[in-house]
Structure formats: C-alpha cells, structure tokens
Amino acid sequence: MPKRVDHTERRTEIAEALLRVAARRGLHAVGMRDVAAEAGVSLRLVQYYFETKEKLLLFGLQQLADRFGERVAARVRAAGDHPGPRAMIEAMLTAALPTDEDSRTFHLVYTSYAVLSVTDEVLAAQPFIANPDAAEGTLVALFRQAEESGLIRPGLDAHLEAVGLLAMSAGLGTSILVGQRSPESAAAVLKHQLDRIFQ
Amino acid sequence: MPKRVDHTERRTEIAEALLRVAARRGLHAVGMRDVAAEAGVSLRLVQYYFETKEKLLLFGLQQLADRFGERVAARVRAAGDHPGPRAMIEAMLTAALPTDEDSRTFHLVYTSYAVLSVTDEVLAAQPFIANPDAAEGTLVALFRQAEESGLIRPGLDAHLEAVGLLAMSAGLGTSILVGQRSPESAAAVLKHQLDRIFQ
DNA sequence: ACCAACGTGGTACGTTCGTATCACAAAGAG
DNA sequence: CTCTTTGTGATACGAACGTACCACGTTGGT
C-alpha cells in the first residue's frame, strides 16, 4: 500500500478535515481522533504528517487564511473586468460576511483562532497581524485611488476610513454568526456607510 | 465550620473566579479544578453550588454581561451631569474597547462565549441576542434625541448608524485584543466616525 | 435533646485526550 | 537481491477532565 506520497498534499487534506470539524463542533472541541476520522485516515497518520497538535493547528490557520484570500480575490474578480474602487471595496468587505456555509466556517474558525492566540503564545505568531494588515493596506490604496479620481469628497482620511470599515465588517460578521443580525441587514449597513463616503 | 451561607453570594464569588481564570488562560482551558483553586475552595464546593460545568458557564456569562452593563453605566455617569447625546454615545462605545485589564477580560471572555454559542446550543440562549439588542436600542434612542435637538444633519437613519457603530466598536475591540491596533488609534477611528455624523 | 437537612472534604470512577511505542508492509537504492 | 527508508496500523500510556459517591461535622427546627 505505501506508495510514495506527496506530503504537502496530504497535509492539506488533513488540515481541511480539521477545518470542517472545527466548523461543525467548534475549534475547542476538535481532537486528533476527530480529524483523523473526518479525513478518513488513522490517528497515526495525523500524527505522522503533523507531529504535534499545535503544528496541525498552526497549519490549519495558515490554510484558512490562504483560502480566504482566494475567496476575496475571486469575489473581486467577479465584480467585473474593470471594477471601480467602490465596487472592489464593497466586494472585499462583503466577502468577509458569513453569508454562506463557507464564509460562516471561515468567520467562526478564524475568530476561534483569534481567541486562542490571546492566551496561547505560539499561536499568536504571524497571521493575525499580517493578514488584516494586508487588507488594510489594500483598502487604503483603493481609497487613495478613488480620491485621485474625484469619486469621493477630498480631505478624508483614507487610513481612518479603511480601519473603520474593516472593523465594522468584522463586527457585523460576528453578529451574523451568533444569529443577531441577518446577512442582508449587515450588507445594508456597509452599503450605507460606503454611500456616505463615496460621491 | 458550616455556617449557613448565602448561596447567591457564593455562586458569584465562584463565577468571578471562573472569569479570572478564563481571562488568564482562555475559556477553553478552564476546568472545574482551576476554578476551585482560584476561588480558594475545594472542587466539591464548585460542584455543590453549580451542579454541572455547563451551569457554571451559563452563570459566568450572565455575570460577565451584568458587570459590563454596570461598567458602561459608570462610564456614562462619569461623562458628566448632563451629557449630550454625543458624549453618551462616545462613552458607551469606548467603554466596550479593551483598554484596561478589566475590559480586556470582558472582551476576550465574551468573544469566547460567542464562539462557543455557535456550536453549543444550550449556551446560545439569552444574552447574545438580548444584551447587544439593548445597547442597540439605547443608541437608536440617543440618535433620535440628537436629531430632534438638531445636533446632527436630518434624514440620517438612526438604526443604521447605531448598528454600524456598535459593529465597528466590537471589531476594533477585537483588533486591539489580538495586538493589531492600539487603543488610542481605535478610539480615534470611533471619534472620526462620530465627527462625521454629528453636525 | 434529637433528627433531618445543609455544607464541606476527600477520593474514586470512567472517559477522553495527546502522545509514544511496537510492528510491519511496500518501495527505491546499491 | 538485499537493505534502508518511508508509510501505515494497532495499541498502550499517563495525565486531566467532569462527575459521582461516601463520610462527617454543623446547624436549625421541634
């Protein structure tokens, strides 16, 4: 049976299983055995490809961030061939809202990781600063571009707007997740905010 | 030794211990024995006053929400004798930001509960809808009041503004918690947003 | 003064967790 | 054709967890 196997691919499959279980039962309740069962492999294999649970969690977080990046990129591409800054910004912000099962998973698991990273030092590492910072940078650039095109009233602080919008989007996402708000009303709030900034 | 004891008071003490441990090591890592040690009582007593861990968690969440309500109320009172709507709104929103150790605890543990409530049905019960909804209602009322006093430009949607600001505050709080943003810059973002709404 | 209920301690039980160990089959290298 | 490496299974181990059980001193009611 033991053909030579691609480690990276196998690790990805197992990490995907981890994310599925985490989405279903919560990240705190995920055990090595659950991941193994979900991936359809033995416990030993999970141990083999990720020596320790911590490394599995780390890889899973990385994977989650990567997948989300692709999701946002796809959304932006779907916004059209030459989308204006407003359309791109709206696509980015609404992509982060938990509207379908995939984005629900992302939001829930990512938030779980964020909570873990506060008390677990080794998990606090890269992605919780790098990833949102990148989104912030992109948003700032889009605002600057919109400003030069005269689409928004001049003199507004691109950085403050970008940070505020991202925080608002994240907060709305959480309230959707816990069932307090509908995705539609959250999108309306974001749209309202953008309406005030643009034109 | 067994004097007749006030159950409510004892339960409160134990719940406070739970919150302290949760703040230090994360809610997911809290065990009954940890709570007992932190409260300075035996494991048996924790079992005695809360028969099960689930009930302890539920009570702890209630306690956390109560304490936060008091905190916000104190902040609003501290804003002055006859604070304008703007000052009250700003007090409410900044009270939710994790600036000191107490509010850090609140934000972290509350977020942990929120994450748990998504997958744990019994925990999803009351406070995650009731509490934010109350804040939303208060904010809406303040906006209406400000509108009637002519402090803000007419025709703005009080509900959309309230929801957006609360979400922004929550999102900023999380980014402070994970170390991405400083409390000062988060407060500046909120202030900027309020500046645009008022007058 | 007795008796039932209350408050408290100690400890044991069954389960689950992450990790380690042992064994072995298949495949590439020489 | 051997031999070392790689992949995989089964299982064992020690710790920690939530909970249950048993014993005992104290208190208030009658």
From TrEMBL, chains A, B:
InterPro entries: BetI_C, Homeodomain-like_sf, HTH-type_TetR-like_transc_reg, HTH_TetR, Tet_transcr_reg_TetR-rel_C_sf
Pfam families in the record: TetR_C_6, TetR_N
HTH tetR-type domain location: 8-68
Keywords, ordered alphabetically: DNA-binding, Repressor, Transcription, Transcription regulation
Family annotation (Gene3D superfamilies): Tetracycline Repressor, domain 2
DNA-binding region: 31-50
GO molecular function, one term: DNA-binding transcription factor activity
Domain of life: Bacteria
Source organism (scientific name): Streptomyces pseudovenezuelae
Protein name per Swiss-Prot or TrEMBL: TetR family transcriptional regulator
SUPFAM superfamilies documented for this protein: Homeodomain-like, Tetracyclin repressor-like, C-terminal domain
